[in-house]
Write a structure and sequence with these properties.
Number of domains: 2
Number of strands: 4
Order of helices and strands: EEHHEEHHHHH
Oligomer: single chain
Strand content: 5-15%
Length: about 170
Amino acid sequence: MQQFVVPQFIDIEDKIIGPITTRQFIIMLVGFLIIAVFYKLFDFSLFATSGLLVLLITGVFAFLKINGRPFHYFVLNLLQTFKRSRLRVWYNDYLLASVNYGADESNFAPALEAVLDKHYTTSRLAELSLIVDTKGAYRGEGEESVVNNIETGEIKRDNFKNFKDAQ
């Protein structure tokens, strides 16, 4: 039997410089480049305020974690949440009408309507569960069960009531 090495700690990022990961290093590098551009473009007071703001934002994106995940995942999830509509409505008729899976209705046998007014007793339910558990080896006692009729193909449409009539 072959043995395989199962990777462990796959959620921990690789460290490149001390405790700083590759992602954190790249984010801080971009922040310092933006600060350098601000140094060339602005006078000192505007450079200092905008530099502190950029340093704060890049520090938050690089080092802050919310629920054990990096901050940029939180921002992306927040934007997706605001983009979605607040009210969700399920249109069952639309779903049934629009989904066609490429199946041709002529390939299917007509469906039998469900029996809604027949109530089974506890002993009958126990007998049906025994039939299911034994995968049909146990045939049941007393009246002939629907399972036996299905296996032999002797089901008649007259035995079932229409679902719309029951409602």
